[in-house]
Specification:
The longest helix has 17 residues. Strands 1-3-2-10-4-9-8-7-6-5 form a ten-stranded mixed sheet, sandwiched between helices. The protein is 27% helix and 29% strand. It has 246 residues and is α+β, with helices and mostly antiparallel strands. The protein folds into two domains: 97 residues, no CATH class; 111 residues, Gcn5-related N-acetyltransferase (GNAT) (Aminopeptidase, 3-Layer(aba) Sandwich), CATH 3.40.630.30. The chain has six helices and ten strands; from the N terminus they run H-E-E-E-H-E-E-H-H-E-E-E-H-E-H-E. The radius of gyration is 19 Å and the shape is globular.
Amino acid sequence: MLPSERYVASLLAAAETAHGRPLGSGTTLVVDPGRDGTGSATCYPTPHASIVWCDASVVERLAGVESSRPLSAEEFVAAAADLGATLLGYGLNHVLDGAPQRPDADLGDLVVRHIGIDDVPPISMLDDLIAACDEDDVEEADLDRDHLDPTFTLLVVPDGTIAAYASGRPHDVEPSFDDIAVLTHPAWRGRRLGALTVHEFIRHRQAEDRGWFYRCNVDNVGSNRVAESLGFTLVTTIGAVSFPPE
């Protein structure tokens, strides 16, 4: 079974466990306790069924979305909008089915640093990277200096600046996959260093027989190019919405 197939199988299995019974081949609402109080719902289309993970408070409002037909992300968002929901955004979920392709990028005098859970994290360097980047980019990379991922890789300039950062944490549905994030310093963008950092991260971690999952917002062109340049397969396009409190 390819990693992308294993990821989809795990997603369906997790939804069936949460739902308490087998899913049909259409579109099914599945309550996600992690969304309590958010009023949110996200559609995950797969080749077998479409799963709508949602806050329990919006199940009744979304009842009309359940269907014998698997909805695409766009179809789900349109149907939910008719019911009063607001679009949060679309995301692209990728899985690596083979060895990562090495991007055509030159390290030059940059130094690769692999930081593990038992290492002392370079907090001041990470603070400088966060301060230099757009807030939305930092949020998409989920880079929180107080809650760092257990392992990450840095490309470091001789003066101590982090040119690019890549990290991974066990995926919430399939823990044998690393959920990868990447962030490049604005002064070092356009040199494929983000993709190179992800490549170095995977190369460092691959001895542990991990799977590789990469997600990004659909409008983040640069992040999507990183996934494509490394050879990731697009597994599903998801669509997220939010309902106002009743």
